[in-house]
Write a structure and sequence with these properties.
It is built from 16 helices and 22 strands. With about 550 residues, the protein is α+β, with helices and mostly antiparallel strands. The strands form 6 sheets. It has a 7-stranded mixed beta sheet, covered by helices on one side. The two termini are about 35 Å apart.
């Protein structure tokens, strides 16, 4: 499952307040207790571990970004965007929000004994500039320069870019330049034995990653959990059984009938599913048939999102809407009047067929619509075969599409093959999600910003459907430059209009943070009343923050 980060709303004024508060922030509290108890994570990954830990490879980095490689600042998206200094101790904006200066923490060492310096931070970002494939959030589309000044690193932007604080401070793993500057091609570097600053080192087999406490970690007395086992599960069922039987204590996947299967097995078993983003049907816009907006609009009307939610996700994930705005999380951003003009894209198979008929499509003898040139609306759809909920959801979508004369053939792949095909654009349709961020801007930017995509055959960091529209790019640039909340909302309204008119992809269900936890042997877990990090084990860098809060029970 792709790592997730996001929830909450952030404005320029809020960022300024958070930055000021963060300068006096503190690290997670510690206690004097210590234990050798092993924490086991049960999170279905869809494939065995590759044992490569390049933190810039989005297919593998989610399990080590945080516990091994660390960011400059931790941003808690669940707790009003609270910021905690991490490898940076403080930061200040200047020059009309075009420059941000980070002061790098002293006394931090990499696991090979070398000292972290501002040169490592500046070098990490300039490596991303030299090798754009490392720049998974396309920060160099707005960055002008990154330079070291003593213990400080100065980031200069081409224009005001306050929303990019999240990408730069929270979403970039800092690497040792003593190693990475010497690599001929850091993009393809496997990194089997990562050298980093985090609380854990790793050992790995295809069956299991084991995290070992770093005895020289810069936060004294942490981590309290000395060993963390992370088995590889290729499907949900065995992972769910590990949780229900108490063999694993921290889970992050869909469990059917969770109350009877999991929660009822022990009073120590708990779960919490905060909504964070969308699971969507990604549409390859380079496909000649799918490039026709009528086909995409028909598909959007053809899907019974509520049925997908009920059957595929047991109602745990609510139905999405075509604007892409996650509600109620971001309800204040939703343009309901614009959505109403399209009937909210409510399930309407008759409308779907009408759109196709008006566009010149006719049904053949098999009941499948064909184009005026005789090409049938028949597509394959790639899915992660290890996610039983996604497989079940896709069966509903396939049935819905068939009912309106569109034929879909599912390809349920291993996690590794699935990620590769989605990122390379080797698909007609794909059922997948992206991570989002601290406002609708971030998920929409991942969907629609052309700087994030790539030519077919080359890996895209996001924007898997290959949507390219200069006018849309301009909206994202304007959002990043403004300090006006009203202007930001106006821009998001315009992006919703694009989602409704162009249908570049189809949000289907609202993705939740799948999170199960046992209080039998460990304390310190996130709860709705104490949301100190996003709680699922696949979140980065939140996973580290969770592990640093956890304590073995005596």
């Amino acid at each position: 499952m792709r790592g997730l980060r996001s929830i909450g709303v952030i404005s320029v004024a809020a960022v300024a307040g958070l930055l000021a508060a963060a300068c006096g922030g503190s690290s997670p509290s510690s206690t004097s207790s210590s234990s050798s108890k092993v924490l086991t994570i049960s999170n279905e990954s869809g494939a065995e571990w590759t044992c490569g830990f390049n933190p810039f490879n989005s297919s593998v980095s989610w399990e080590i970004f945080g516990p091994v490689y660390e960011p400059l600042v931790f941003v808690d998206s669940l707790e009003n965007q609270k910021t905690t200094p991490w490898l940076a101790t403080k930061w200040t904006w200047s020059d009309g929000n075009k420059v941000i200066t980070f002061t790098i923490r002293n006394g931090v060492k990499f696991t090979n004994g070398t000292t972290l310096t501002a040169a490592d931070v500046a070098g990490t970002f300039n490596l991303m500039k030299k090798f754009p494939a490392l720049d998974v959030n396309a920060v160099w589309t707005v960055l002008k320069s990154v330079v070291q000044q003593g213990d400080n690193v100065v980031f200069t932007f081409k224009t005001a870019a306050v929303p990019y604080f999240y990408y730069i401070a929270d979403q970039v793993p800092i690497v040792p330049m003593s190693i990475w500057s010497k690599l001929k091609n850091p993009v393809t570097y496997n990194d089997p034995d990562p050298v980093a600053t985090g609380p854990y080192t790793v050992s790995c087999t295809p069956e299991q990653i084991t995290f070992h406490a770093n005895p020289h970690y810069w936060q004294p007395g942490l981590p309290k959990i000395k060993t963390v086992d992370y088995p590889a599960f290729t499907s949900n069922d065995p992972a769910n059984t590990e949780l229900a039987t108490g063999q694993a204590q921290w889970g992050g996947q869909y469990i059917p009938s969770i109350n009877s299967f999991y929660k009822s097995k022990s009073p120590d078993n708990h779960y919490w599913f905060p909504p964070v983003a969308n699971v969507s049907l990604f549409i390859n816009l380079k496909n000649p048939l799918l490039s026709n907006v009528a086909v995409r609009q028909a598909m959007a009307y053809a899907i019974d999102r509520s049925k997908v939610s009920t059957i595929g996700e047991s109602g745990y994930e609510p139905a999405s809407n075509q604007t892409g705005i996650v509600t109620p999380t971001y309800s204040t951003w939703e343009d309901t009047s614009e959505a109403a003009a399209f009937g909210d894209y409510a399930y309407n198979p008759a409308k779907a067929e009408s759109i196709l008929t008006k566009a010149g499509f006719k049904k053949n003898s098999s009941g499948i619509f064909v184009s005026p040139s005789g090409k049938p609306l028949s597509f394959s759809v790639v899915n992660n075969g290890g996610f039983s909920d996604w497989v079940a959801a896709m069966q509903v979508i396939i049935s819905d599409m068939k009912a309106v004369g569109i034929q879909l053939t599912p390809l349920n792949l291993s996690g590794t093959d699935f990620d590769t095909r989605v990122e390379d654009g080797s698909f007609d349709l794909a059922y997948d999600s992206e991570s989002g961020g601290p406002s609708p801007y971030y998920e929409m930017r991942q969907w629609l910003y052309s700087g994030n995509t790539a030519a077919i055959g080359k890996p895209a960091s996001t924007n898997y459907e290959r949507y390219i529209n200069p006018a849309t790019d301009k909206l994202f640039d304007e959002y990043a430059a403004t300090t006006s909340t009203a202007t930001q909302h106006s821009i998001i309204d315009q992006l919703q209009e694009i989602m409704l008119k162009d249908v570049p992809l189809i949000p289907v269900t609202e993705e939740v943070d799948w999170y199960q936890y046992s209080t039998a042997n460990f304390s310190g877990w996130e709860t709705p009343s104490n949301p100190y990090a996003q709680p699922a084990p696949y979140n980065n860098p939140d996973m580290e923050v969770t592990l640093l809060h956890l304590r073995p029970k005596s």
